[in-house]
Amino acid sequence: MPLNQDFVGRCFVAEVPFQVGREHIRKFARAVGDDNPLYHDVAAARAAGFADLVAPPTFLINAMPGTLGLPTDDPALGLDYTLVVHGEQRFQLHRPVVAGDELVTSSTLTSIRAVGRNELLVTTYQYETTGGEQVATGICTLVSRGTAAPRG
Amino acid sequence: MSASPAVDGRAGETAVGETAVGETMTAMIGYDDVEVGTELPERLFPLRRADLVRYAGASGDFNPIHWSDRAAAEAGLPGVIAHGMLTMATAARLVTDWIGDPRALVEIGVKFSSPVVVPDDDEGATVSVRGVVEKKLDGNRVVVNLTTRCRGEKVLMASRATVRLP
């Protein structure tokens, strides 16, 4: 069943800021197989001029309201998450995320359009700290497989 | 392309804490050191089913298509597939390891063109990543075009990172 177009233009923000923690950075870096000392060793990060452990660039995907920035558990959207695959992802980083950052991420669903049998959901993200510092922006395309309305 | 690309062990199998401090603390590549066509040598990154489960836990993305054969089959996929963001993180790593300093990465974008199927066996899947400097821009910025393959197929397309070099 096609997705609910009423959600286009809506902006989603988590109720509480995303607290970037050291152990989450370490766990995430291990999960992507990255042993860069800046992601694991506080002393190494400080010696390199960072306030604390540095997060790998794609760590930003964690600091997202809902699932990948969308209210996937809201039945009104009509998204079956098992039919979703990632289509495209882009981040522009103003500075690396470090442990101790409190991030406020706003995610805006900018379009839902049918391409063949699939629907493409485009979402844009803005990451800023609770202090109002812009940290990064992002854009994501998700593919909802086979949910487009049949032609005719 | 190098004849025998370096194979990376997963962090779970290596002693993370033993990495030499300072090894990657400063950018070692300068803007004047690179030209259009400069290559980032190919590296191989093995991905096994346990790595997908670990990534699910670390990222909070528990979509069952990334760990359950049953869910993947029901969703019409050829098998359990890696999280796109795990493949992207792997591609990004070629760049952050090359430049040494994660501050230098200013933009990265990829299109997921083909899924990385990760069977539940000892082999899993192997993702290969190589890069080439595509453009030199003002402000000491350099655009790296990344080629990421699995089983010979391009799993990422239009995959580019922009870095600001000293």
TrEMBL record, chain A:
CDD domains (UniProt xref): R_hydratase_like
Record domain FAS1-like dehydratase: where: 7-137
InterPro entries xref list: FAS1-like_DH_region, HadA-like, HotDog_dom_sf, UPF0336/Enoyl-CoA_hydratase
Alphabetized SUPFAM superfamilies for the sequence: Thioesterase/thiol ester dehydrase-isomerase
Pfam families reported in the protein's UniProt record: FAS1_DH_region
Superkingdom: Bacteria
Alphabetical list of PANTHER family matching this protein: HYDROXYACYL-THIOESTER DEHYDRATASE TYPE 2, MITOCHONDRIAL, HYDROXYACYL-THIOESTER DEHYDRATASE TYPE 2, MITOCHONDRIAL-RELATED
Record's protein name: MaoC family dehydratase N-terminal domain-containing protein
